[in-house]
Amino acid sequence: MTAGWIVGFAIGVVIVLVVVALVVPILALARSIGRAAPLIDEQLKAAEASTAVLTGLRTTIDHAEVIVAGLQRGRARLGG
Predict the structure, then answer these.
(1) Which residues cross the membrane (predicted)?
(2) Domain limits at 43?
(3) Beta strands in the chain, from DSSP E residues, in sequence order
């Protein structure tokens, strides 16, 4: 083997080690996210269930606005 081959081989090994050093933490992070995903999904479903009643809030607000408008008209007619 000539010096050129040894230098080329060494550079190749260094490049492979750098790539591995960069990819391993990414894979570890992806694995931890994958483990947490079911818990996150459960919590999102619980949040959806606990906030489902808020869909009727618009109706409540509309009725409250009608009531307040009626009270304002009544107060105006009574001179208040």
Answers:
(1) 6-30
(2) 3-77
(3) none
